[in-house]
Amino acid sequence: MKPTAILPIALGLALFTGCVTYSVRADYDTTANYAAYKTFDWYASSKYAKGKTDGGASAIMDRRVRHAVEKQLTAKGFQFEKKAEPDFLVTYYPVYRNRQVVTTTNMGGGLFWRPFHYGMSSAVSEVRNIKEGSIILEIVDYKTNEMIWQAVADGALTDLRTPEDADEVVNDAVSRMLDKFPPHASKQ
After folding, report:
1. Looking at the 3D structure of the chain, how many domains does it have?
2. What's the pTM?
3. What's the rounded mean pLDDT across residues 23-34?
């Protein structure tokens, strides 16, 4: 087999087996003054938490998501404020749901003689249960305790096979979720 024929096959297999596909969407309060926000803290650390915790994920996934969020927000110029009152609070939580996927493979064959056609075919269906996981990230105004921004990475926590996969996907998902925060269309 020629090396040029192997390349498309290898790329196809890499794309089929190695890619996690997910979508990101965001919603926000168009009346919030995002220019006034300079500092942040985690919602669970705030006076509003009342014993609630962020996440609901494993301790490792919790650290992974928190690190990615803190990294992205500080890269945007926001300061992580642990001691004084912050301008906004951040919380996230994973959402998991079970989904059934049905795949059907058609198999057939036949003999062809003019003008006759003899053939036989069959279909095999397989039902698989998939645990889909999404990340929901919310930003709350500290003074009003009102949510001002929310992003969802639908399917980002699906089919993470290794810790390295999880690191890569969570960092990418958080980056994509916070890409448009703060919104440029906000009141300044």
Report:
1. 1
2. 0.69
3. 94
